[in-house]
Automatic annotation (TrEMBL), chain A:
GO molecular function: metal ion binding
InterPro entries hit by this protein: Metalloenz_LuxS/M16 (IPR011249), MPP/UQCRC_Complex (IPR050361), Peptidase_M16_C (IPR007863)
Domain Peptidase M16 C-terminal, first and last residues per copy: 169-343
Record PANTHER family: INACTIVE METALLOPROTEASE YMFF-RELATED (PTHR11851:SF186), METALLOPROTEASE (PTHR11851)
Protein name, per record: Putative Zn-dependent peptidase
Automatic annotation (TrEMBL), chain B:
Gene3D superfamilies: Metalloenzyme, LuxS/M16 peptidase-like
One GO MF term: metal ion binding
Protein's recorded name: Putative Zn-dependent peptidase
Pfam families: Peptidase_M16, Peptidase_M16_C
Length: 411, 428
């Protein structure tokens, strides 16, 4: 349980994280659990009445997300409710919200001990639609296909929402069984940010959640990925107007490592910002793209590059990006590029505390990685990174996969 | 400098209109590390025919406001992003139908960043060469949106609803229209719409209002701006009927995306009435079609809608339309069901309990929005440009009666003023 007391916000923000190792056998059923849980609780089994309860709490925000961090599949429930002092609420809103979340997660609507058939079938359909819809957003689709190709031999290839082929065979019995396993074996972390105290939240949670017996679980370190022997180039065709060029790189550095701050600098100088090499060289100098950027997944140690380009410019854009990687390895970046990037990372780390959601996400990094590092500490470490340390990250970073989504016509 | 306190939302703003006409508002936020500032002009994609102070009318190519936004970031010394980065600020800009907004967010060197923001927006630098170079970048931005199904279905609907009003024009224009943009057309738009009297500066964060205001006063006093006459915008009268009742596009999507919209033809409203009508319509739509409504659940249970089903209402002085829909396996069945459910609601009226619950929900989500400096700056400016005040919304929500919402329910849905936009993988 993590409580971050503050008077900055007009709300209480609540997040509950539940993590299990990513595994082919369980990924789809685990992903389906929150979809079914949000349909109703033991006390309010009908969905419409459940939604009305949320509306009555001054439209409490309620949602969930399923994603991957390192080799874990995380289900996150979020609630956001107004601090009572702004409204004339007839019930204490934080207490009622925790009660509702506790019901959702630990006291769902069951019939004869199983999830309701109607909810399971409807949400199987919703999950299937979500998986099918990934292709609708070509930017996201290309990014996920690149990871899937790159991590073909690892659990990380799996989509956080699972696999379509597994959905049909899920039954209320199999899902209820997986739910119970999930409840007793997943790592659960509850966060509350707002004008409250740990003591108050502890007392509210004790009565709101039916917490199962047993040792609380934790997270294990992400598996060390293999080294690259040859760059894998994948070209896929579809009816698109714009080509999507994606690259996947293995940095061999994760959040828990001492050189993580240097990896942040590496990514920032390469493509994290509009002053970065990718934006300047692919967009501003060559006019090849509207977006050209890189992103670091610190829990998996993967850096990805993404850009939308004219289909005929594939070779040209790839060559420019490779040149930027080469200049990173050679340590070709100015004092200005380093100081600008440090200033941008510092700004981001200082801004965290202005958003309850960001505060929670940052703190959860230490739970996931097992490395406790406050934002202030990371900021100091980032300021102290030397050019040689950045080049060292660049030199051990390996380009693994080049993925290109292009038009449907065969050349 | 005038001080305005809003006890209901526990916020206080400081406001001043400078001698050159620039309006400045500062909102101090205790305990916040960051400062977020937006510098906005009342100039967007719909402003394509205009005249200043009795001069000759000018027509400009579609997409020019957005093009201008891109070009502002270039200075003779290079890209302004680099300057912001050196000062630890993250900067950006966006263009909508009726405004262009430049912004930064920073936790340090606030004064330097604020000066940079004001100065770069007030110093255009267009050359034949840099204008040509930008065309390649914006063409890729246009191509990116052409592949975006949500964007296509949304703008397809507006295009189906409106025949003349420039709201139906794509904000970024087309490859062809931006091909016609020159540095001369950019300068004439710039000089018209970036005059301080047409602009608004909003600063929110952990700042001292008097210090910030003094910085802006000094900055502006050091610059020369000739007084400018009133900007007149020309918009052809919009015919009552929709352009086309049905517009389709083909893209590789898993399920058809469908949006229904209803166009309203009405006399222009004063800002207070406009706001009240908008709020009443939004409450009506959410009570009727929101995620707690019986219609929503019936359609979800029958697999005709997914979580993506939603609704919105957009209105300004000279246009008003709703947008309803999401993805569905069967657009025709969805429309038939919606129509009968709406007609039933029109006959019976909304449930009072559901209406009151929706009100609470809307007030709650409004207060939640006030946690975010970005959202406050964006919404404050949006409301300011239409003569309303973001911080006075709670009483407006509270004042709307069930009768008003029911009146909107009966007025809004005219079936002959409806258009449908569909994006699907099948040919039309």
């Amino acid at each position: 349980m993590h409580v971050l007391p503050t008077e900055r916000f007009k709300t209480f923000s609540i997040s509950l994280f539940a993590g299990l190792p990513l595994a082919e056998e369980t990924v789809t059923e685990t992903a389906l659990i929150p979809f079914v849980l949000r349909r109703g609780t033991e006390k309010t089994p009908e969905t419409i009445a459940f939604r009305e309860r949320l509306d009555d709490l001054y439209g409490a925000g309620f949602g969930f997300d399923v994603y991957k961090r390192g080799d874990a599949q995380i289900v996150q429930f979020r609630m956001d409710v107004i601090n009572d002092k702004f409204v004339s609420a007839d019930q204490p809103l934080l207490a009622e919200s925790l009660k509702l979340l506790g019901e959702v997660v630990t006291a769902p609507a069951l019939e004869n001990g199983l999830f309701r058939d109607k909810y399971v079938e409807a949400e199987k359909d919703t999950l299937n639609k979500r998986l099918e819809a990934i292709v609708n957003d070509k930017i996201r689709y290309a990014a996920e296909r690149c990871i899937e190709e790159m991590c073909a031999g690892e659990p990380y290839r799996l989509h956080a929402l699972g696999q379509r082929a597994d959905i049909a065979s899920i039954t209320p019995a199999s899902l209820t069984e997986q739910y119970q396993r999930w409840l007793s074996t997943a790592a659960f972390d509850l966060y509350v940010v707002g004008d409250t105290t740990l003591a108050e939240v502890e007392q509210l949670v004790a009565s709101a959640f039916r917490i199962p017996q047993g040792e609380p679980a934790g997270y294990s370190k992400s598996s060390d990925p293999r080294h690259v022997s040859e760059v894998n180039t994948v070209i896929e065709r579809m009816e698109v107007n714009q080509g999507k060029l994606n690259m996947g790189l293995r940095t061999h550095t994760t959040y828990a490592d001492d050189d993580y701050p240097a990896a942040l600098l590496f990514n920032g100088i390469l493509g994290g910002y509009p002053h970065s090499k990718l934006f300047l060289n692919v967009r501003e100098k060559a006019s090849l793209a509207y977006y050209a950027a890189s992103r670091l997944d610190g829990h998996k140690g993967i850096c990805t590059i993404q850009s939308g380009i004219e289909i005929g410019n594939f070779e040209k854009a790839t060559a420019i990006i490779q040149e930027q990687l080469e200049s990173m390895r050679a340590g070709n970046y100015s004092e200005l590029e380093t100081s600008q990037t440090k200033a941008m990372i510092a700004n981001h780390l200082r801004e965290l505390q202005d958003s309850a959601g960001e505060m929670i996400a940052y703190d959860f990094n230490s739970v996931l990685s097992g490395r406790d590092r406050s934002a202030e500490e990371l900021l100091r470490q980032v300021q102290a990174v030397t050019n040689e340390q950045i080049a060292a990250v660049a030199r051990k970073t390996e380009l693994d996969t080049i993925y290109f989504l292009r038009d449907g016509k065969e050349a | 400098m005038e001080k305005l306190a809003y006890p209901g939302v526990q916020e206080t703003i400081y406001r001043e209109v400078l001698p050159n006409g620039l309006e400045v508002v500062v909102l101090p936020k205790d305990g916040f590390s960051k400062t977020y500032a937006t510098f906005s002009t009342r100039y967007g994609s719909i402003d394509n025919r205009f005249a200043v102070g009795g001069e000759q009318q000018i027509s400009v190519p579609d997409g020019i406001a957005h093009f201008l936004e891109h070009k502002m970031f270039e200075e003779p010394t290079g890209d302004i992003f680099a300057t912001f980065a050196s000062q630890g600020a993250s900067a950006n800009a966006y263009t909508t139908f009726d405004r262009t907004v430049y912004l930064f967010s920073a936790t340090e060197q606030i004064e330097a960043n604020l000066e940079t923001l004001i100065n770069f927006v007030q110093s255009p630098y267009f050359t034949d060469e840099n204008v040509e170079k930008e065309k390649g970048i914006i063409e890729q931005e246009i191509n990116m949106y052409r592949d975006n199904a949500d964007w296509r279905v949304y703008f397809g609907l507006i295009d189906a609803l409106y025949q003349k009003h420039p709201i139906h024009i794509d904000i970024a224009g087309t490859a062809e229209s931006i091909g016609k943009i020159t540095k001369e057309t950019l300068y004439s738009c710039y000089e018209t719409f970036y005059h301080p009297s047409n602009m608004f500066l909003f600063i929110v964060g952990g700042v001292d209002p008097e210090k910030v205001m003094e910085l802006v006063r000094r900055n502006q006093a050091a610059k020369q701006f000739e007084a400018q006459g009133e900007i007149k915008r020309f918009i052809d009268a919009e015919p009552e009927a929709v352009r086309t009742p049905r517009k389709t596009a083909q893209l590789p999507v898993s399920l058809p995306k469908v949006l229904f919209g209803f166009k309203e033809n009405r006399a222009p409203l004063a800002s207070e009435a406009l706001l009240r009508t908008e709020v009443a319509t939004k409450l009506m739509l959410d009570t009727l079609l929101g995620s707690s409504s019986p219609i929503y659940h019936a359609l979800y249970d029958d697999n005709l809608i997914s979580d993506s089903f939603g609704h919105e209402f957009n209105s300004a002085e000279d246009y008003a339309f709703s947008v309803i829909g999401g993805e569905t396996k069967d657009p025709e069945a969805l429309l038939t069901r919606l129509r009968s459910a709406i007609e039933e609601a029109q006959a019976n009226g909304l449930s009072e309990a559901a209406f009151e619950r929706t009100k609470r929900k809307k007030i709650g989500s409004y207060l939640r929005l006030l946690n975010s400096p970005e959202a406050i700056a964006g919404e404050f400016t949006r409301y300011r440009f239409r003569g309303a005040d973001l911080f006075k919304l709670v009483p407006v929500y509270e004042a709307i009666t069930l009768d008003e919402a029911n009146a909107r329910l009966r007025e809004h849905f005219s079936w002959d003023l409806m258009a449908v936009s569909i994006v699907s993988k099948d040919p039309a």
